[in-house]
Amino acid sequence: MSGSALYETFARAPLSFERGEGSWLIAADGQRYLDFAAGIAVNSLGHAHPHLVAALTEQAGKLWHVSNLYEIPGQRRLGERLVEATFADKVFFTNSGAEALEAAIKTARRHHYVNGNPERFRTITFEGAFHGRTLATIAAGGQAKYLEGFGPKADGFDQVPFDDIDAAEKAITPETAAILLEPVQGEGGVRTFPAESLKRLRALCDKHGLLLIFDEVQCGIGRTGKLFAYEWSGVAPDIMAIAKGIGGGFPMGACLATDAAAVGMTAGVHGTTFGGNPLAMAVGNAVLDVVLEDGFLDDVTRKSLLIKQGLASVADEFRGVIEEVRGTGLLLGLKCRVPNVALNAALREQHLLTVPAGDNVIRLLPPLVVTDDEIRDALGRIRAGAAALSAAPVAAAG
After folding, report:
1. End-to-end Cα distance, the chain
2. What is the pLDDT of residues 254-265, one digit of tens each?
3. 393 phi/psi in degrees, rounded to 5
4. Going from the N-terminus, what domains does the chain have, and what CATH number goes with each?
5. Phi, psi angles (nearest 5°) of residue 47
6. How far is C-alpha 223 from the geometric centre of its chain's CA atoms?
7. What is the value of pTM for the model shown?
8. E strands in 259-337
9. What is the 3-state secondary structure (H, E, C) of 335-356?
């Protein structure tokens, strides 16, 4: 055997970390990095949050796994809390966002099947979407770079241009079951669907008997300053997939649905061995303890304003590097005039960790508990990184 024993599917940065503290990651040599990647919007409460550590370690000393052959009290509690805080009546717990999306797609198809319309299985999606890496979710996302080499694209997904609601309406056929979208596209370049577009989609679904599915894997759990991004528009979906932030770093996701949408999801039609295990439920409940505290989400919005004001100043100063600032809450993007990977590398040189995205964007995804001082620190590092790129020009973005 030569080289690494791992699949070579990741172009990893030459960095590894030994521990984390809040918004910081510490490498083995003691160097500290300000983490505005948060595990790609996963570490919603930063690293080693005391409440999460306590919840996990207490549960670890009791029970890790029993499977869904039995009642899991933590599941019932977390499910009830998510229902109370959202549009939903029912919750199915998974281990990841892709599994939550699979459950959402299956819920929509099954809904029409049990209502006497088995021909209705197709889902309309939008360009730039990222819904996961399974065969169904890469078909839903529709991006060629993720589909290439995996055989025929899974049938049942019809894609239209981003935020083109007229095209979505034209794409509806007697086989259409649902419309699926991220209220804020993360991987697609921090692009937000306007509230008016979501209202039109809701009306289209109601008119044609379709289910509206929101993918809030990245934009949910306080990331935009509301518990879920759809709340900004006042438009509720029928089904929603969540993950990332709800586990605060522990792998978990969930599919939420109304009673009407989930009518076909009866015993035996779907399942999971690990989903909703006691460890995940302990952590998920602990995350909600913090995020639902009075004032927590208001503070995310306040901190968003602080960082956006600073970013606007940096963008104005370095117009050759940054074209615009995007996003809401602490899901922010810098649209670059240079290749986004160049800015990402320049920021890493400043010991600030960020995440590239589509549309030549850099994502800033700090923990929701980031402090004002850490925001000011990050802005200084972004300014220094942009200055370094300005001083040593790189090839223009493609």
Report:
1. 38
2. 999 999 999 999
3. -55, 145
4. 17-43+294-391 (3.90.1150.10), 51-291 (3.40.640.10)
5. -100, 135
6. 9
7. 0.96
8. 322-328, 331-336
9. EECCCHHHHHHHHHHCCEECEE
